[in-house]
C-alpha cells in the first residue's frame, strides 16, 4: 500500500531509457496546451450552465440532440460539468506542482551545495519527507484545514516536494563538481551567484521532467481526495466529485462516470507522455545512458 502512495514514477522514469519520439512530445504538449485552453476559456465550451439542474431531465442518456454525455441524478449536464472540472483539476495540479518544485529545488540545491553539518541536516529532512506516504499526509492536512481549492492546492504542494528535492539533490551533487563551477568558486564568485548562474540553468531539463510527472500524480491525488469527499466542496463540478456521485447509478446510468474518467485518463496520459518525451530529449542531448 505504501509503495502506491509515494511518488515512485518520477525517479524511475527520469533515470530510465525512453524511446519517445519528438513527434510524440509535440503531440503531448499540444494536448496539454488545448486542455489548459479549455480550462481558461471554459464558458465557451459549455453546452449549458454546469450548475443548471432540471429534475425532469435526470438520468437521461447521451444524445447528439440533447445532453452529449447524458445527465446526472440532478438533471445536470455531464458534459458541461466535465468541462468545468478542467479548471479545478488543472489549476490545483499546476499550483501544487509549482509549490512542490519551489520547495524541492530550494532544499535539494541547499543540501547538495552546503557541506558537512547543514548538508546532513537537510538530507535527513528530505529522507524523512520521502518516508511518509504523501496521500496520508494530505488527507490529514485537508481534514484539519478544510476543503476548498486553495487548501487542497497548497496541501498537495506541501506534500509532493520530497521526491523533487531528492532528484534535485542528486543532480546538484554532480553539477557542483563540474569544472566551470569549481573555477567559479576559485575565482571568488559567491555561492548564490554560482547557484543561479550555473546550477539552476543546468537543472532546468531535469526539473521539467520532474514537474511533468509530479503534475500527473497530483491530478490523481486531487481526484482521489475529491472522490473521498476530502477535496472539493459537495456540488462543485470536479471529476472526483462526479465519480463519487456516479457510484450509486453505475448500473442505471453508467454514462455519468464515462466523462470524468475519460478526462482524467487523457490528462494524465498527456502529462506522463510529456515527461517521457522531455526525458528522452534530455538524454539525447546529453548523450547520457542511465543505468
Describe the structure in your own words.
With 291 residues, this protein is mainly α. Helix content is 71%, strand content 0%. It is built from twelve helices and no strands. This is ABC transmembrane type-1 domain-containing protein.
Q: What amount of the residues lies in strands?
A: under 5%
Reported CATH architecture of one domain: Orthogonal Bundle
Mean pLDDT: 82
The H-level CATH homologous superfamily of one domain, spelled out, is MetI-like
- Report the principal-axis shape: elongated
CATH topology of one domain: MetI-like fold
Round the Cα radius of gyration to an integer and report it: 22 Å
- Ends distance: 27 Å
CATH class of one domain: Mainly Alpha
Helix content: over 70%
Q: Strand-and-helix sequence, N→C?
A: HHHHHHHHHHHH
Q: Largest beta sheet, briefly?
A: none
Q: Which stretches of 5+ consecutive residues score pLDDT under 50?
A: 1-18
Structural class: mainly alpha
Secondary structure topology:
Layout: H1 2-5, H2 8-15, H3 22-40, H4 78-113, H5 116-131, H6 134-145, H7 149-159, H8 161-175, H9 179-186, H10 191-227, H11 239-246, H12 255-286
Task: Tag the structure with descriptive keywords.
291 residues, mainly alpha, MetI-like fold, 12 helices, disordered N terminus, ABC transmembrane type-1 domain-containing protein, MetI-like, cell membrane, transmembrane, MetI-like_sf
Give a short synopsis of this structure.
The chain has helices at residues 2-5, 8-15, 22-40, 78-113, 116-131, 134-145, 149-159, 161-175, 179-186, 191-227, 239-246, 255-286. By secondary structure, the protein is mainly α.
